[in-house]
Design goal:
The complex is a heterodimer. Chain A is α/β, with parallel strands linked by helices. Chain A has helices spanning 22-33, 80-95, 98-116, 128-141, 156-170, 189-202, 226-246, 255-263, 304-319, 334-343, 359-364, 379-386, 399-403, 415-426, 429-446, 449-464, 474-477, 489-496, and strands spanning 7-13, 38-45, 60-67, 182-186, 206-210, 249-252, 294-298, 324-329, 350-354, 367-370, 390-394, 408-410. Chain A is built from 18 helices and twelve strands. Chain A is globular and about 70 Å long. The chains are: A alpha/beta, B mainly alpha.
């Protein structure tokens, strides 16, 4: 079957090809697998970044880290009144009920995207803090209903902080994309805003891959005051809701993410779940080392999951003396992770490594403990499954559905259960080997680059295809309410897919 | 049912203060490891969704309490923290006195900009990046000041004494920024006892007293700056803020040196009281502004609070220039040089206090201009009138409405 070569803008937030992490390796796999398409890689960043650490594949026509900043306004343009209206709609929409609020935010973002064509900072002349305070007070006074409570009190200082952050976020609407057939947004509010702006301004079809949920807090945001965090989260959620509604197709990485997307207003017919993938050739199974019982963990930053792991490991040490734990985190987090290990009094039995590639650490462990951090995409569990080691995961996000019955899943809040599962596997080499083989086989059969390429090739073609006429056929409307939203070809393709 | 949910709320970051709806609540509970199974087994509710709604109902009850900004030390505590370093100076006076006026002036020109600039910059860093980052900035900044003093002491002497004095200024600067005012007040008690003992016949050996005082000051500074050991890098722009506010400190120090050289040591006596008073008033003003920003829920309410604060601050600024004016009038009747000098000291104290308050309002360049312009204008024929005019101008600027947010 002949597939048309498409031009795709792949949008990330500070990711591929400028950062090495789970989602970047997924993007790399995708771009490499679809070598008949032409990719324009755009990652949105706050500060200038160095050259990409990944070598660019031949089908990457361009790569750019776009700095989202205030920039200069085009001379002779003024849109203060329009920006003011957009700001009011945005702030009231964030705090409004789900249906009307979403419509207001979409309207606001459309207006801001229009303004951003001439001014990279469309809210620069707007007293956003004052408007936010006004909307906040109104929301606190209104009847919130069963599923909502009044937002926390917002002071002038916190309103100024929240306004500055919202103003900065909206600058992403000014990012210009090259002329492409599809804008593919892979996680993050800023890339989604850039893709939405391109969709509204130039009619570029939008495809959204959802690997994380926008409720999750970014590093450093725990320092912000609760009302500022609430405002940011409401904004991110509202942008996601708009993105899901405007996208031609939405591709969650798991049923867990699909549930989130459905709860946030996406039409079921536009959702196609495409599980994560990893290249078995890059992740060969290696034989167990003879260095004694050992566990391995790889994460993006030391969060609550590390406390859980260390507490469980203390229990494992009681049952399996001499057991060691290998930890891997990014360079920047190594000191903090070491500090946590020392505080737990486990420095003698734990080794902390830094760097992006988990393969070395996985190879050194007999059992891989998978405790995903709050903003970690599900890519890493597939890499863990391919490592040829038994995997123990905690029941959070999509872990259980991806691991299936080829690993052990324990409750998220029980270090005792985690320790017991690890001890059981460390002391039973046969079961360990059987689970390791089963996990690798499951990953090799379900989460492969071939699956990924086939799914995304179809998704791109569907998204880029000319829109199907949806004008109502009046002669039928009176007798038969036909569905106005056509079922995308991808869904038809999936129905044909052999299991 | 409410007791287990209350316990659950306590486990949430900030007690769930940022939760707004059932999606937030469900996500927060999931992050704690709560699942449908946990909701049934431990909380007797059919699902995570039902538990999220129960959590929302619990949180809703606390949403009507008024905003309570972080408490801060009052002006009396801010002024009293100077007692320890001042007592250390008294206790070691026989040792530091022979260093002479040039060394003291040079030290003032190094310490005042460091204290002022780093204090303001560290407060901004603390708000953005936390206490440890602020401590790191202070430690790094005072290390640079120490190096500068070591260079200066090649000409003026008194390397060790100057470094101890800088440690004292570091402790004074760090205490309000890092929440250590109470600790510095505690350090002030033994130092005050030492100073009192040194004023009695039962005094210790001068060298021993000076060493004890120096050790106490250095220890106090080290304890206050200890969080710097595990700190991330300070945010971009911190050193620029330090420089902008440091210029104000340099101008104030230069004005003090000018006063000393023009009117003699008597004129500097009022400054000994004016500097802690100015520092306390500026610190209190900044804290009140921060409280107003945190507590006001509308720009109108914030402006109302700022107007009241400006009037109160102006009232606090008046006594020193008023005393200076009265002394000036008395000196004209009695023609006493010492009274004229005291008058000039009081008036310059007023100018420096106004400059400090302007800097605390986020106008460091205006504060620097007032502090620097006063001695320049006063070097003419009528220095007292020029200082009074500078104070009046600064007062008017203080009464002007600041930036809203």
């Amino acid at each position: 079957m002949n597939h048309p070569a498409l031009r795709v803008a792949l949008l990330t937030a500070g990711g591929y090809p400028y950062r090495r992490d789970g989602l970047s390796s997924w993007c790399r796999l995708l771009v490499g697998a679809l070598d008949d398409h032409e990719f324009h890689l755009r990652t949105l960043v706050d500060t200038r970044t160095g050259p990409p650490p990944y070598p660019l594949p031949a089908n990457a026509a361009s790569a750019e880290a776009v700095v989202v900043g205030p920039g200069a306004r085009r001379p002779g343009t003024a849109g203060a009144a329009e920006a003011g209206v957009a700001a009011v709609l945005l702030c009231r929409g964030l705090l409004g009920d789900e249906r009307h609020g979403a419509a207001m935010v979409t309207d606001a973002l459309r207006r801001l995207a229009r303004l951003a064509a001439d001014d990279p900072d469309p809210l620069r002349d707007v007293a956003l803090a004052e408007i936010l305070l006004d909307a906040w007070r109104t929301s606190r006074a209104a009847d919130a209903g069963n599923d909502r409570i009044p937002p926390p009190r917002l002071g002038v200082g916190d309103a100024a902080t929240a306004a500055a952050l919202l103003r900065h976020a909206c600058r992403a609407l000014a990012v210009r994309l090259p002329a492409v057939d599809v804008a593919h947004c892979v996680g993050g509010t800023a890339p989604l805003l850039a893709a939405l702006a391109a969709h509204w301004r130039d009619g570029t079809p939008l495809l959204v891959t959802e690997a994380r949920t926008p409720l999750e807090q970014r590093p450093g945001e725990q320092r912000l005051a609760p009302p500022v965090r609430a405002a940011l989260r409401l904004f991110r959620r509202a942008v996601s809701r708009t993105g899901y509604a405007e996208a031609a197709l939405v591709a969650p990485m798991s049923a867990h993410h699909r549930g989130w997307i459905l709860r946030h207003g996406a039409h079921p017919a536009t959702i196609v779940t495409v599980p994560p993938a990893a290249d078995p050739a890059r992740h060969p199974a290696t034989p167990e080392l003879m260095a004694g019982p050992s566990l391995a963990w790889a994460g993006t930053r030391p969060g609550p999951e590390v406390h859980l792991l260390l507490e469980a490991f203390a229990g494992v040490l009681g049952a399996v003396p001499g057991c060691t734990l290998r930890l891997l985190c990014p360079d920047a987090e190594r000191g903090r992770l070491r500090e946590l290990v020392q505080q737990a009094g486990l420095a003698a039995a734990v080794r902390v490594d830094a760097g992006g590639d988990p393969r070395r650490v996985y190879a050194a462990g007999q059992v891989i403990v998978h405790l995903p951090g709050p903003d970690e995409p599900p890519q890493r569990i597939v890499e863990a499954m391919l490592a040829g080691r038994a995997v123990v995961g905690v029941d959070t996000g999509p872990v259980a559905e991806l691991l299936g019955d080829t690993g052990v899943v324990v409750p998220r809040d029980s270090p005792a259960d985690l320790a017991a599962a690890c001890v059981a596997l460390l002391t039973d080499p046969d079961r360990r080997a059987a689970l390791a083989a089963a996990a690798r086989e499951r990953a090799r059969s379900r989460y492969t680059p071939a699956h990924l390429a086939r799914a995304y090739r179809a998704l791109y073609e569907d998204a880029a295809a000319p829109p199907v006429r949806t004008e109502p056929r009046h002669e039928f409307d009176l007798v038969l309410p036909a569905p106005l939203v056509p079922v995308p070809a991808t869904v038809r393709w999936l129905a044909r897919e052999p299991s | 049912m409410s007791a287990p949910v209350a316990e659950l709320t306590r486990r949430l970051p900030d007690g769930g203060a940022d939760i707004v709806d059932v999606h937030d609540a469900a996500a927060a509970l999931t992050a704690l490891g709560v699942t449908d199974h946990t909701a049934r087994a431990r909380y007797g509710l059919p699902s995570l969704h039902a538990l999220s709604r129960a959590l929302l109902a619990h949180l809703a009850r606390g949403r009507w309490a008024p905003l309570r900004p972080r408490p801060h030390p009052g002006p009396a505590a801010l002024a009293a923290r100077w007692a320890g370093p001042a007592a250390a100076l008294v206790a070691s006076w026989p040792v530091v006195r022979p260093l002479g006026a040039p060394a003291a002036a040079a030290l003032l020109l190094v310490a005042a900009p460091a204290g002022t600039g780093l204090g303001f910059a560290a407060a901004a860093v603390r708000a953005r990046a936390g206490r440890a980052a602020a401590a790191r900035l202070l430690a790094g900044g005072f290390a640079v000041a120490g190096a500068l003093w070591c260079l200066a002491s090649l000409r003026f002497g008194g390397t060790a004494a100057g470094l101890v004095a800088l440690a004292g200024v570091a402790a004074l600067t760090a205490a309000p920024v890092l929440g250590g005012v109470a600790e510095l007040l505690r350090w002030g008690v033994p130092l005050s006892v030492l100073a009192a003992v040194q004023l009695t016949p039962a005094r210790l050996d001068d060298g021993t007293a000076a060493r004890v005082a120096a050790a106490a000051l250095v220890l106090a500074a080290a304890r206050l700056l200890a969080p710097a050991a595990a700190a991330p890098r300070e945010p971009a722009g911190a050193w620029r803020t330090a420089l902008a506010h440091g210029l104000g400190g340099l101008a104030a120090a230069a004005a003090a040196v000018w006063l000393w050289r023009t009117f003699g040591w008597v004129a500097a006596v009022p400054l000994l009281a004016a500097v802690p008073a100015a520092d306390a008033l500026a610190g209190w003003h900044a804290a009140q502004r921060a409280r107003a920003r945190a507590a006001a829920e509308s720009v109108r309410a914030y402006r109302r609070r700022l107007r009241r604060l400006a009037v109160t601050t102006a009232a606090g600024l008046l006594p020193l220039p008023a005393v200076g004016g009265a002394l000036f009038a008395a000196a004209h009747r009695t023609a006493r040089d010492a009274v004229l000098a005291l008058s000039a000291g009081c008036l310059l104290g007023g100018v420096l206090t106004v400059a400090a308050v302007l800097a605390a309002r986020g106008r460091p360049l205006l504060g620097t201009t007032v502090a620097a312009a006063a001695p320049l204008a006063a070097s003419g024929a009528y220095p007292h009138l020029a200082l009074a005019a500078a104070t009046a101008a600064g007062l008017l600027l203080t009464l002007r409405r600041g930036r809203p947010a």
